[in-house]
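User: Second chain of the day. Same drill as before.
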Amino acid sequence: MVAATHDPALDDLALIQALQSDAFYIGALGSRCNNERRRLRLLDFDLTKAQVARMRGPIGLNLGAVTPAEIAVAVVADMTAARHGGTPARISAGWDAAAPPDPRQPACTATS
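Assistant: Same format as last time:
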């Protein structure tokens, strides 16, 4: 499942359902900071830290993708690797549920 609308009202509801399922791939488009904010929002719902940690984001393999088509290829490659148990270098190395970064810090500005 990939959340791609950039609208929390839509994406968050779909992510909540996916994180409570046995889906092999759950991810969301967006910057690192937007994904950290999303993870913090998801913790406000009835989800555990372990469930929220299943969400990948930013999604895709680190291919240097720039265009929408290249980003789509990077995301599908990441999904394929996840399906077959591969461990390629993802854009997001994962999320530490015990110590999430603070999205209010300078590294997470409104433009990231």
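The chain has a mean pLDDT of 85.

User: Great, on to the next one.
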